[in-house]
Structures are given as structure tokens and as C-alpha cells.
Amino acid sequence: MTFANNKTPIEKCIISFSHNKYSTRKEADTVSLAKAEREIAARKNGISHLLLRAEDDDIDRLKFLFLIRGIPIMCYALGNLLNSSLREIVVVGSEEVKKVMDRFLDIVGTCGKTIRFVREDAQHLNLVHTMNLGRELLSPSPDELVLFQPGDLPFLYDLEKVLHFPDNKKYNLVLWLNSRQTMFPDFAKNPESEFVKRNYHYRSFSENEDSLLDLKEPNLYPINFAMMDSDIIDHLHSSRKDGQIIHAGIQVALQKPLRLLKVLPYVMDHLLTFRTNVNRIRPGDRYDFGMSRKNFHKGISRLLNTPLTTTLHDDPAFVSDVDALEDWEDFESLTHHAETTHGREGLETIHPFGKSLTQFREEGMPQLKTEIPMYRDFPSYLNSIYETLEMGYVPFDRDNQYISPNANLKEVEIAYRWYKQKCALLKQPHENRQQV
User: Fold this and answer.
1) H-run or E-run covering 394
2) In Å, how far are 31, 200, 242, 273, 375 from 280, measured between CA atoms?
3) By the 8 A CB rule, do 148 and 131 touch?
4) Range of the domain at 215
5) Could you report how far apart the first and last alpha carbons of the chain are, in Å?
């Protein structure tokens, strides 16, 4: 197995504002509705009416372009990178993404970063091709981790703990796993404290193996491209949703039979002990895949032939991606609440780059509304999607005012307080910061 001795901290990033497309709008909507119906029938914690692209759309339904409080999602995500210690950023996206990016950077500046753009390849919208497009522009060295991040994480602004993570030096892939118990430690006693609703398909044990953790796949990847097989990355990412990662592991194992022999001791230990230990802690628990983190680290590292580790964070922003209408509504409600409470300064109370984002909304969006079809009447556009996906209500009234019935949920107030505290701490001098 190869070893790692990487430079730290991470200084380069690829952010993807690209996503695959379905052949037709009808097919895409059928997939979205079917998933939501399954989740509703199963009484899942998180219901998702997915935002999917289609080849025959008149307006490209690219989720990164959607507006949160009048500002494109991609601008929040790009602002997070500008506000970090990164030095080089490659943006992958469509021509419309480039228009937004150029206008955004003209107004808010680059914060001293080197930022380059590469257009998505419409014929190859898979993850590996997108990564390679960015990798070619960054030219990372063999001992260098690069942060790969999808651009639908608008409030993931506490990036320094990822960029400066001590284990970056020792591992060629770091998975920042989303753990329900570490992000929302009081959810069992106080369900409203879990202000991000997601479904957790995986299980593992706590450090002392005396409690069970509900896990969800990571949304960002510090990765050493020189030490990872690109086909393996594609398998792991494309099959990570809805508990399908075990199938990805099987596919990888079948392609690497010699490595499979090295993994067998960990697989056998897992088969003999894991289910028994789960039932001891939580009898009858249903999950799609589970493994002790110790076995997972050792087994997957040998399967991939490179050192890998996982870490559990306590930041809900890491799991708060915008895949669905429900996710968009969470952030629209959050930012609506902040600006209702604080006026024009509302966004900067919950987002460290909020002042610049508000400036861009005022100075940049009027021009973009004439150039990008989605923005000409975004409230009507979004209302039509709500109707097509059978949401049962629309988020905007005839005067374009936000009227969602979910805008005043207790979870919105809790999310607002959480982000306000997090934002205030990050604005303090580094030596005075404390973990939220």
C-alpha cells in the first residue's frame, strides 16, 4: 500500500457547479416524484423533491443558479472559498455559471485568490471528468491534497478546520462524515433542535463502541489525485446516495481481486460481530450499510491501496446541501428570518461573507436578471416547479413575497440562532475562537 506525506494546509480547491442531465423533463420529474413518494410512504425524516436538470429544458434547472434571498446559491459557496485561506480555486460550470461568477468577482473581488474557470463538458457530466477538468488547471504536486467540493453548500463557511486538519498529512483521502449524533446531540429529546432534516443510511460505533452513530455520506473530499484511481472515486461518489455505497465497494472489489484478499480479514470480522453489536445497542435497527470505523479505515485503505481516514464533525452546514425544493426552502426561510429581524444587515449576522453577498444582490443582480432567463421572474419560475412536483403550495405570492407555510417553523428560529452564534465566533480573532 502506498503511504502519505502530504503538504499541509490545503491551498487548492475545485468547486463544481455542474450536474448531470436527464434526457427529458418528464423523465427527470418522474424520478423526483417517485423518490419523494417513497420517502413519504416510509415516513422518512427527510423528504426530497429533487432539483434535476433535463436536456429539453427551456431554462436550465441548474440548482447552483437558484436564488436564496435573491442571491445565487453558487455565490454563497464561492464566497465561502474567497473568505478562506485557499490560494487557488478552479470553478467548473456552464456558460451561465461563468456569467454569474464574472459579475460576482467584478463586484466583490477575488480576495487575493487565483480563480480560473473551466466549462463543463456537456457530453461527460460525470464526477471524474469534472474533477479532471479542474485538476488540469491546478496541476497539484504528488504530495498535495486538493479540496473537491460541490457548489451546493451555501453555509459551509467554516472551512479552516478542513484545510488545516492535522491528518491531511497522513492520508490521501479524508471523508468528513455527517453524524446525526454529533451535529444534533439533543435530537432524541428535542426533535426541533435537528434543524436540518436528512435520512441517515449508515451506522457505525462511537469511539468507545458503547453507542451507535447514524451517518450520512460526506459532501466534500480532500483528496490526493496522484494517489487515487479515478474510476474508484467515481464509483464511490456516484453510488454514495441512498445507502448504495456497499454496491460501489463490491464493484471495486471485483475489479481488484488481489486487493480483495487483503480486505477479507476485516470483512470477516465485520460479518461476525457488527450486527450482534448493533442489536445489543439498538435492537432491530434498520440500515443500508454499517461498519466499525476501525474496520472501515483499514479495509478500505487496503482496497483502495492508499491510506484513507474518516472524521466526524459537529457542523450542520456540512450536511446542508441543496438537492431538493425542501433544502432550498430551509435556506430561504433562514435568510428571510434574518432579514426580517435585522433588515439589510440580516445576512451578515448569519454568514461571514454576508455583507459582500448583499452588495452583489444590489449591484450585480439587476444586470443578471436581463441576461439569465431563470432570473427574469424567479418567483414565478419556482412556483411553477412547486406545482409540477405536487408540493401542494407555492412559496411566493403574486407580489413575489415569500409566503411558505414552513417559514415560521421552530426549526427556522433554531437554525438562525445557531448560524448567528457560529458567524459571530468566526469573526473573532483566531485565538479567541471556540468550537460551536
Assistant:
1) none
2) 37, 20, 25, 11, 54
3) yes
4) 12-318
5) 37
- Cell 439569465 sits on residue: 372
Find how far residue 378's CA is from the centre of its chain: 23
What is the total residue count of the chain?
A: 436
Please, are residues 104 and 115 in contact by the beta-carbon 8 Å criterion? no
Which CATH number does the domain housing residue 306 bear?
A: 3.90.550.10
151 found inside a domain: yes
Q: Tell me if 272 is assigned to some domain.
A: yes
**Buried b / exposed e across 107-124, counting CB within 10 Å, b at 16+?**
bbeeeebebebbebeeee
At 158, the amino acid letter reads D
Which residue type occupies 17?
Answer: F
Residues 6 or more apart whose CB falls under 8 angstroms from that of 95 comprise 119
User: How many whole angstroms separate alpha carbon 245 and alpha carbon 128?
Assistant: 17
CA-nearest of 409, 369, 335, 5 to 167 is 5
pLDDT digit string (tens) for 138-185? 988 999 999 999 999 999 999 999 999 999 999 999 999 999 999 999
The answer to whether residue 407 is domain-embedded is no
Q: How far is CA 129 from CA 116, 219, 358, in A?
A: 17, 18, 34
Specify the pLDDT at position 254: 58
Residues of the chain with pLDDT under 50: 243, 430-436
β-partners of residue 13 are: 89, 147
pLDDT of residue 434: 40
- Tell me, yes or no, whether 166 lies in a domain: yes
What domain count does the chain have? 1
Cα angle 27, 28, 30; round to 5? 65
Query: Residue 235 has which C-alpha cell?
Result: 464509483
Sign of CA dihedral 369, 373, 377, 379: negative
- E-assigned strand segments in 165-251: 173-179, 202-205, 212-216, 221-223
* Under 8 Å between Cβ of 396 and 378: no
Distance CA 310, CA 174 (A): 6
From residue 71, alpha-carbon distances to 21, 171, 280, 363 in Å are 24, 36, 48, 11
At 19, give phi and psi (nearest 5°): -155, 155
Residue 149: closest CA among 100, 221, 82: 221
Confidence (pLDDT) at 256: 67
